[in-house]
Amino acid sequence: MSAAVKRRDLGAAVLLGVPVLLCALAIVVPLVLTLIISFWERQMIGMRPGFSLASYALFFDGARFSVLQRSFWVATSSTLLMLASAYLVAYLITFKLPPSRTRIFLFLLSVPFLVNYVIRTFSWAYLLGRTGPLNQFLQWAGLTSHPIDWLLFSDFAVYLGLVAAYMPFMVYPIWLSLSAIDRRLIEASWMLGEPPLGTFLKVVLPLSLPGVFAAAIFGFVGAFGEVAVSQILGGVGYQLMGNAITSSLDVLNYPMAAAMSTVVVGCMLLLLLLWLRFFDLRLFLGKMLGR
Amino acid sequence: MSNELKQFNRRTLLAGAAVGAGALALRPSAAFAVGQTVTLADIGVGDPNGDWSGYEKATGNKVNLVSIGNGPSAVLNQLIAGGGRQTYDIINIVGGMQKPLVENKLILPLDTSRLKNWQNNEYIASYFKPGSKGFDFIGYDGKVYGVPTILQGDSFAYLPEKTGGELNSYGALFDPKFRGYVALEDNYTTAGQKTALYLKAAGLVDIKDPSNMTKEEIKKVVDFLIQKKKEGQFRVVWSSFEQAVNLLVNQEVYVMDCWEPMVFAAKAKGVNAVYASPKEGFLLWAMAAYLVAGNRSPEKLEASYQLLDFMLSPEYGAVITNLRGYMTNPAAPEFASKSGKFDPVTAKKIADIDAGVKTKFQSGGTWQARWPSNIEAYEEEWQRFKAA
Q: ipTM, 2 decimals?
């Protein structure tokens, strides 16, 4: 191997190594620390290094476990809802919108993010309240004689808040996946006599699954760890895991907060492993990499 | 310049320096503090809208105000892990946090003889006597750690047009007549304690000390709250100032466990909200400014003491009472009316606020326990209430 090649390899290693190292420091180290602390023993105010399952036992035995169950259910069901709507939007953008308007539409999807997320959530509280515009409209239109209570501080409000917060994020990976599909495959399906629904189910949907799964992870991760939506729109102590972790931190119960975080991260890692196991990442990244 | 003059100047200079150094050595607590910048971490209530001119003109020092969260974890995390001990000279937060702060060596005991405004302050003498519940908001283990910067008594708010008249008991929060139109604060040391006050006064639960409940007592309180929650009594558990104000302004709820400034804010938006005077008494509390433990020069320490003293002055008190609606200093109303710094309307407002809070303290109640003995049980039980 020539000296020039060696130098080039060394340069490439340094070029790649530095960001990889930074990522490891920023992501892996805090996660490992969280895992370690979850086994420590809690003292009155601080904590003591050791190996104790007390925090996990308290977590799985107490009210917080029901929060985990609820979080899992809310995150799963809202992700399915968001996937359905995000897929529809992404499909329309990819196949029905003239290419010249695609960018404009994608830009419009990002406009809500120009407003602070908490303020957006507070806006929903105003819109859905008993005296809010939506209830006033419903009464004005004669659809109801009194304000509808369940529009705010309810499951409905939380789901709406989650969809508004995370669904737009989910459109992008699905659109990316859909637009990477070779149109000749779709045309071939048509020419072979497959109707549009059959073509969608047998060609488009399977080929877009890497993007769908990526979108599902975006939505699930966000909803699972949500704090503001449940707090502002949920009503009487509507708790998701993010709220429960914050509450533990309020009384400086770091091992408990770490144990809960570890369980949450474990769930996320499991999802990521499934994604990597079943889908070839290159199919999804191919579009971005121009291949 | 002649040699004689040079020698004279040198001699004078050396003599002066020696006298100055001797004076400093003899009384380090009175170090000459000019040109210092004192960093004050505050939760937002102690900020006189950036106007520290009273302090700066009197001392030649400056104030660098930084924002800090009020949650116990936010405060402790900032001081322990966030470099707060090196950054902050004073923290001004809701008092009663001495136990975790002292046991983690995060704050210093105060030498109150260095605070001239501490002396003759009738509020300190009356409400923060050593051994009293009020002392627990500023002291620990017999020592004073905090300067009480504001005082207040909390109860609940209501909309009289909707409730059909005056409400004078915490029982209104649990009255089936207002089912679905009640909000509680997401805080076990306020909502939990007010519920305990009601349950004790109504003879529903045997609670010895609502401000410091046993595990069994807080469990009974939460059992009661869960029962009410399942009956649909509560519309929401609020967690921020804006959220609570909006609940009143939008008439989302008619009765709400909250702080009095929220009523002021709602009134400013044209809503007729009333802050109740419950027969069970008020939940009393105070903010305290603590001296942060850290490497600090004698000059910086002196400047910090000067700022603490300024925060005990009638001038600062009047400004904060006017801006935040809390009682501060016994001489604040007089300062507001005589100093010429406030117009008569504002001076009257300050006097009214002072008189109103004073009445609350006179009518009694219990002091809020910011860090109760069984705080872990409180948090666990509150989780149970919210998850139910």
A: 0.72
